[in-house]
Structure formats: structure tokens, C-alpha cells
């Protein structure tokens, strides 16, 4: 098991910072950073969290840093639909409902779908039932030949965009399960997205009709819970009148 100093050094290297860079940002001496990383000085909880903050370490990994130093985890991980996060659950559910008739969904750090609004149903209806067994994974749903892949007109662009996003995510905070997903669907992908529009759309074909969508991603601003830190709301918007009409015709 790595020591807290070794873990901090790994995060510093991942962020491409020198000991001096981190020391200046955290307002401590470079010598102290060096002593912590080499294990010659045992950092306090406050110092660990201070360094982690300037290294932009996710909350789950901050707990790992604390455990490695012999301290209790600071950030709880509670189910989104539990009593403790009831207000957050209702806020997210309200955002999803308000976005109808256009699709919106909540994904966790592994791109598993946690919640979705009713506008996603026509897309799910295109997938093989085996891909809809919980947890439904957004990447697998989109790129598996049994899923949405045959219905995505610009599949190469979509795959390339996902590769860039997930590669960036893995570089920021490694995750073994996400790495497996990347290797399964995205490793070796070299297509480059075409930047001809403000945002590269996803183009779906439904019964001869093309539906063009672009997406936005929303996260909680100041989470103090691992679950909230790791979820994101993906909201999709139509790019043209024909796509608007499609959702108007399919909305309940």
C-alpha cells in the first residue's frame, strides 16, 4: 500500500507540477512538500486536504489520502436516492423533468446511468434488452452494435469525442473500471471530430428521420459527498426545427 507521501507525489506528477509549484500554490515551503512526499514528515489532516485541494484531487481519492496517513475518511459516500441526499435527488429530478421533451440523464464517474427523464425512452427502445440490465452504461449503450451505434449517423465523430472525454477523465483521476470500458470501445480510435459547427452534434436516424442533438454537462458546484462529486447531468438539445418537431411528436 502506498504511503500518503507517495500518493501525493503521484498526484503532483499527474498535475505536472514541481514541488515548488505546489508549495507556492499551497503557501507552504518546498522543503515541507519534499519531507511529506519522502515520508520524513507526517502531514496533518489539514495539510493533506490543503495539498489535495491545490492538486484538484477528487473527493474519493482524498479519502484514500487520509486513510494512507492513518486518518478517518472525511467525505461520506451516500446513495443519491437516500434520505441524506433527498434535497439533491429532488433538485436533480426537477432538472431532468424540466428538460423534457428533450433527453437528459445523470451519469456517475463510470458513465453508468443513474437517472433519466422520459425523453430517453425512444432511444432505449432501440437497444437490445441485454444492454438495459442495470447498471445501464452510457458508453456501452451508445457504441455497442446491439445498442445505438447502428442508428448514429456520425458514429466516428461521436466515438472520437467520447475517446477524448474519457481519456481526459482517466488522466485526471484513474479508474480501473473506466479504463476497462475505454479499452473495450475506444482504444485505438484515431478519428478526429470535424469542427464545422458551434458544437459537434450527435445525429440519430429514426425511421428515416434524422435527429440532431448537442449536449451540455452540469455538475454540483461545491459537493462534500463522494456521490455528488462524481455525478454529472448530461442534457441534450435539438439543433434544428426538424429535431424539435421529432421530440414534440414523441413526448408523452
UniProtKB/TrEMBL annotation:
InterPro entries, alphabetically?
Cro/C1-type_HTH (IPR001387), Lambda_DNA-bd_dom_sf (IPR010982), MLTR_LBD (IPR041413)
Q: What SMART domains would the database entry show?
A: HTH_XRE
State which residue ranges cross the membrane: none
Ranges for domain HTH cro/C1-type: 8-62
Task: Extract the GO molecular function terms from the UniProt entry.
Answer: DNA binding
Top-level division of the source organism's lineage: Bacteria
Q: What is this protein called?
A: Transcriptional regulator with XRE-family HTH domain
Naturally occurring in which organism (per UniProt) = Nonomuraea soli
